[in-house]
Amino acid sequence: MKILLLEDDRLLGESLMEYLDLDGFEVEWVQDGAQVLDRTFEERYDFYVFDINVPEINGLDLLQELRDADDATPTIYISALVDIESISEGFEAGAVDYLKKPFDPEELALRIRHRLASKEKSSMYGEWEFDPQTGMVIRGDEAIHLGEVQKEIFALLLSRVGEVVRADELFEFMREPSYNALRVTISKMKKRLGIEIRNVRGEGYLLEKL
Q1: Global pTM?
Q2: Which domains are assigned to the chain?
């Protein structure tokens, strides 16, 4: 398993690289965001571990740029930033986990293995591969990151493909549920993925069998 580690603290970077290497991972360590773009252009990795406050390009902007380039590689943030806004931005950028500094390197290794294992439990819908843990939907080189609400709705529809799912069941995933808001959410998801989710009037929504 090949990991790209972005960490500008030399002592921490060396320590993490050494620990993960002993734990059976192949680790490449860089110290600024621009180096990440260079390396990901040349190499493929199984996992990214990114600090946020790093030189050149911060970890948040970096991951967003990678996701925009259809790079769906699972990513964990490691950061001293502990405010909810930073954590939320990390997940919105497409991270699968967020580990607050200081932390035990063993915990990082465990989280990486857990996320890689969960990736193996992804579901298929036609040519799309859906990871319910991360919200990533992948088809070939194309990758789309679903937000939290869309991810949960799609996961439920996919688990009951060919069946009508009642609107009130889907409401459970929404902060301010309403029929109009649900209709807009599903319409956006259909457009992004190019799939058919049928509105069964008076009953709910149906993800068609392929």
Answers
A1: 0.61
A2: 2-119 (3.40.50.2300), 123-207 (1.10.10.10)
